[in-house]
Structures are given as structure tokens and as C-alpha cells.
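Record type: monomer structure entry
Structure origin: computed from sequence
Chain ID: A
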Amino acid sequence: MFDYKLLEALACVIQEQGFDKASRKLHITQSAVSQRIKLLEDQSGQILVTRTVPPQATRDGKQLLKHFLQVKSLEADLERTLEIK
């Protein structure tokens, strides 16, 4: 099971196209974003982000990003459903 704070950092780096922009959006330091990505890479045993400008998700990074976005979508659907009841 992955820590969703780590997955959120991955998604933010890719969506914001940089570690600095991701840190501002997440309201944490750039170092903290880097540490989260590194921890996620250590846990998965894979490099997930190429450190280019802008950063790019690797094949494995794209799979984790897809998973994270699907989970976020499911959560949003559930929240909407629960508000209707």
C-alpha cells in the first residue's frame, strides 16, 4: 500500500511541471517534495520521475500517477453521492 501523501507529491510535480511549483501548491518545502518522491521511489524500487526540465514521469511513474488520479476521482464521486443522501 502506498502513502497517498507521497503519491500526491508525485502528481503535483508532474502536473505543476516542477518541484518548486509543486512545493508551493502543497505548502511544503522543495526539499520535502524531493524527499517524498525519493521515498516513493525507494518503496517502489523504481525511478518514477526524470529530473529534467520539466520533470517527466517514467513508465512506472505514469502507472502510479494513473492510480492516484483514479482514486481521487472515486473519492470525489463518493463525496458527491454522500452529499445527495
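Annotation 1: DSSP finds four helices and two strands in the chain.
Annotation 2: Helices lie at 4-16, 19-26, 30-44, 59-84.
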